[in-house]
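Q: Predict the bound structure with adenosine-5'-diphosphate.
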Amino acid sequence: MANVRLENIKKVYEGNVVAVHEMDLEVKDKEFVVLVGPSGCGKSTTLRMIAGLEEISGGDLYIDGQRVNDVPPKDRDIAMVFQNYALYPHMSVYENMAFGLKLRKLPKEEIDERVRAAAAILGIGDYLDRKPKALSGGQRQRVAVGRAIVRKPKVFLFDEPLSNLDAKLRVQMRTEISKLHQRLGATMIYVTHDQTEAMTMGDKIVLMKDGVVQQIDTPLEIYAKPLNKFVAGFIGSPAMNFFVGLLEKGKTMMFAEHEGGLRLPIPKKDQARLKSYIGKELTVGLRPEQISIAGTNVIGASRTKAKVTVEVVEPMGNETYIYFSTRKDSTQFVARVNSTKKPATGRPLDLVFDMGCAHFFDQQTEKTI
Ligand code: ADP
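A: Predicted complex:
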């Protein structure tokens, strides 16, 4: 059993820099929680406060119901994996993994058993005698993870552990850490700036901005029901398109885009909710997959055809990204379409905008309507 609870946790650095505003979070036993957000949003500070590496300025931190604000790191029963691996260069892989256990004076046989078991799980059994400098980045990262595993901690903390790896290895290690989580059944808190890692690894995502939690939800909930424009734009790749315009009443309620004159009908299900915005500005959010090339697809109640200008076409192999503007040289938007189509750049193109899953944001508060 290991749960972690943050109540009103705050961090103020010297010079009155508020890195984390009153933060509430509950990490349940065996849960994999990802803290995600742009650089400087307070993710690492939060993690380091949980680890005990950073003093907590306000609020209460509980591990398994015990308040640990003043408990030193070594007594919190937590293991942390760092981005730069933090291995001892003069020690072998075996010694690196065994070091923490030796300090705790565990019997030699038990240390040996734990190190070899962890090495087997991570596939580094053949490198136990090597020094870190004779290992690849991925192998070093495994040693760093191994060093955490052998301690059998209550909670694992990961601080951007994959940032120094190349793209392919990152994907591989991502699935390995997920598998490890299932296998160990451990509570894990993972920090990343990468929304893909957050989406694919987390049971729960905590999205932060400027030290303030924006939303805590499962990956699919956060994707489908973002609470504000920032969350909507951060989660999803390519990012959601935002169109600014006016809501018109007319015969059917209509969104009239300012810049390029797109006119998109508001689906029936959204009309009552948007009533108070008639005659006002608002932002409509459409994910790239909600925009397709006109052709065989059906134009219906919430699907509207409109002419745009193609700016850039990016074939990805399995799909194609079409960057377009609604008026020549205006803001660039993106559609994600079938890979069999490759429209010409600089040319007009008919696209279908599916308003069925559109998101609506208040222009001032940027909150979801
Ligand atoms: P993230 O991990 O999301 O990139 P950090 O938690 O590292 O963000 O930093 C959050 C904020 O706190 C940033 O504005 C950063 O500049 C500031 N900060 C981090 N460490 C210190 C420090 N030791 N002293 C003063 N400010 C700091």
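A: The mean pLDDT is 92.
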